[in-house]
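Researcher: I need the complex structure. Ligand is glutamine. Inputs:
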Amino acid sequence: MTTKYIFVTGGVTSSLGKGIIAASLARLLKARGFKVTNQKLDPYINIDPGTLNPYEHGECYVTEDGAETDLDLGHYERFTGVPTSQANNVTTGRIYKHVIEKERHGDYLGATVQVIPHITNEIKDRILALGNTGKYEFVITEIGGTVGDIESYPFVEAVRQLKWSLGRDCCVIHLTYIPYLAAAGELKTKPTQHSVKALQQQGVQPDIIVCRTEKPLTRSVREKIGLFCNMQSDCVIEDGDVTTIYEVPLKMRDEKLDVQVLRKLDVPVTNEIDLSKWEAFVYKLNNPEKEVSVGLVGKYVELQDAYKSISEAFVHAGAQLRCKVKVRYIHSEYLNEENIEEKLAGLTGILVAPGFGTRGIEGKILAVRYARERKIPFLGICLGMQCAVVEFARNVLGYEDAHSVEIAPTTDHPVINMMEEQKAISNMGGTMRLGAYPCRLEKDSLAYKIYGTDEISERHRHRYEFNSQYLEEFQKAGMKATGFNPNTNLVEIVEIPSHPFFIGAQFHPEYKSTVIHPHPLFVGFVDAAMKYKKS
Ligand code: GLN
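Model: Output:
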């Protein structure tokens, strides 16, 4: 079979869930035995979202190969279990940078370099490159933004050209919104008609329309959309409200999204679809037997997308344990000695989040102390682990001024130090210690017990590290380093063995948690939270 290319565009409004639809379709095709990958094209000019404030764009997701990417790649991996890479996320900035570098290098041999064909060729190359790896039968490419945005024109133009050249190997799904006007008692199709017109004006006829709607689509609504948008009404797919995003693949199966896609792409619909594991997961998720409340202490809590992978990892772990994990978001900036009792009351687990910079840091350190002293299950991730080290240095080792040099560059007790290879770096973008690194676990550790192996690999995104000069002192006082990078000896995990569950990880376990394989550290943490509640 030749590689098939599927594009997902969006109209009417943002936040309709293009990423979830693209990921769900990938799941369905995978469940039919196909090899699938998802790609995201982002029309903004940043080279990648690594330099973006999470308030702007939510979490920055990190791939195995160390790409800092859009959070939709997290959905893709969580839904499909297929690792993504730098090639799976391309921005306008990356495209232009490459074209301009080629121009400076003289590669265009004197030609006038233009949006069409040079920019669009570069976009097409990035899409086709995934197919050309020979690893995938389907490449599903989501175009960020909304059709009609000025910045997404070159991407839609690239889709138009590919649709023309690939013929039956290409199809376009347009995700749109059908508002319900309560006063009229009606679902309204006009915004969809306009949005499809905008796409058609750019030369692209969608093959399938997926309609976000709060009410079921009637037959006549489907027919109307089909009539105005040039398609059979069975290509108009209902995407109704669900209680969890993980129900979307099942909904899309019931609506036959995958079947319509296969028909459009001239692929015989022969093989069975096996979603049994997925269904079992959704069943467990929707039928919990227990409940715990865990606190997520961070400084971006107004925007929950900022901690997307963490909250999803809790969903996966909770489902596995048949336990509803209620996440209480706690603003570290407003956490202090006076209100900590009240703010953390009733929690049976405390997670201190990753992050950068000074804002909210003392609140995070205070939350660690609370969890350590009261023996509440604790998981610190990246900056959260560094806070655990600082807290221990201050309150157990007695170094009152202990800190990370990120926050206090002149402290006399830099228990978290800048990594050696970071010291000469001045550029901010793409320069941290990024991506997957191996880690060796001490055999007598909690981490080893949880992972069930002494060799793991986890993803990183940081500049600072545990300062090994203090290692002996920490170990003597009861905080143990239990995970090390086998090549550099960097400390990757700290634990307090006298505490029932106290783990700080320099890496980000949340990036590797998926529906089918919940992350062991999250499962262990939720399990500990359940035990704490019982006791
Ligand atoms: N700011 C810290 C560092 O760069 C932690 C980073 C993070 O939490 N991802 O080391």
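Model: Summary of the prediction. Residues 115-132 form the longest helix (18 residues).
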